[in-house]
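Dear colleague,

Thank you for sharing your sequence with our group. We've completed the structure prediction you requested, and as agreed, I am returning the results in plain text so they can be pasted directly into your records. Please verify that the sequence below matches your submission; if there's any discrepancy, let me know and we will rerun it promptly.
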Amino acid sequence: MKRRHFNKLMVSGAVGLSAMPGVLRSATVMDKSGIRFGGPVFEKYTNPEEWVKAVKNLGFSAAYCPVQPGEKSDVVKAYEKAANDADIIISEVGAWSNPIDPDDAKASAAIKKCIDSLELAEQINANCCVNISGSRNPNSWDGPHKDNLTFETFDLIVETTRKIIDAVKPKRTFFTLETMPWAYPDSVDSYLNLIKAIDRKEFAVHLDPVNMVNTPTIYYRNGEMIKDAFKKLGPWIKNCHAKDTLIDNHELTLHISEARPGLGILDYRVFLTEVAKLDNVPLMLEHLNTAEEYNLAAKHIRSVGEELGFEF
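Please find the predicted structure tokens below.
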């Protein structure tokens, strides 16, 4: 479906999204007020048992995929079993690349990486495989570009995403696109547009609310944006990233930076309340440099959650 035609349908509302089939892991309120929480593991490991110990030492119940695409099948299965036995959810397999690169050879290589990563997510039973939609910037795979937010690029994203999903046809996992400030999906409604246009039950949502904070209005009302995101996208959300957002008061015209959770103004009371309503959807720390920074971030998030009565 072309973007222009789809936008006409969107005028009438949610275009029947609630009736779309194939939402295999629908969002439900958990029996306990619990949140699946995780992040990177700095401790070295050489086998599934050591990996489980490293994850548990951090107090995590979710983790990033511990192996890379191309790993031997028996090794992948061993990590899957270890995660299942230890009640650890493998949150995502990252496929970070640019499937819409203006260089055709680079785009093809990125699409192959996405297919390989989605196959790994299926094999290891990760909640999702995640990438960004990409960028038309020839010099930056994830950078801004004047053509990123155009009808033509929207259609290209739909085409490449279908190609990736159709090559694997996953049964246990989903392909997702992380929200971005200058590329689709850049808002709640543009994500809804993509869900409808891609039209694949194996396509789902990876929510990073910080990446949708791209105006001062959203910045100061980010709690409202988060509520809207979970209200509209909840049934499709498979994973969330935990960061923070901070306007640099000394840089004009506008500069919004990522920050360690607790150092910005992201409304974690709202964020955690909404995540806790979903069924086994992990909240994953990312983009910090040291184990100590991750410990401080985890401490902040846990303290907010404990005030709200949530367990991690």
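Summary note from our side: The radius of gyration is 19 Å.

Kind regards,
the structure core
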